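Bit of a strange request maybe. I'm writing a small parser for structure token strings and I need a real example to test against, not something I typed by hand. Could someone generate the tokens for this chain?
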Amino acid sequence: MRRKFQKWVESYQEDVWSLARYLLQDASEAEDETQEAFIKLWNQRKTIDPGRIKPWLLKVTRNACLDRLRRRRHITDVQTGDSHGPVAVAQRDEMGRWLKAAIADLEEPYRSLVVLRDVQQHSYEEVARITDLNMSQVKVYLHRARKQLREQLTEIRP
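Reply from user aminoacidic:
Good idea to test on real output. This should exercise your parser:
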């Protein structure tokens, strides 16, 4: 069983970490959530269908990241009294940094959907399973998220 678990870690750790990194915008916190996801997998390894390991891991990671963001926002609100902190605008000539910032600025579930579908290239069916949304919701929300990203791009272009 340890060998099978090690194979799962090697196969899925990059996807799990990448999702956490995009959602949390902090490498250290992403590492923590990645480790926690694999600990949960180890504890649940006998009850999870082996064919559903990846969607299960991504769902657990997404939920843990959203919980962490809620706690972070609550702490920030208590400290500053402000519930809406601005996201730093990336420099115009650094599209990669801008895009990461723009994705981070999206509200949920838009942010998760863009990361899962457009960044990590999961199928629509996988995204629907991971996020507990139906296919119509996934498509509509992705359309709205992409529209918001296009609008943000238009705002920063000269």
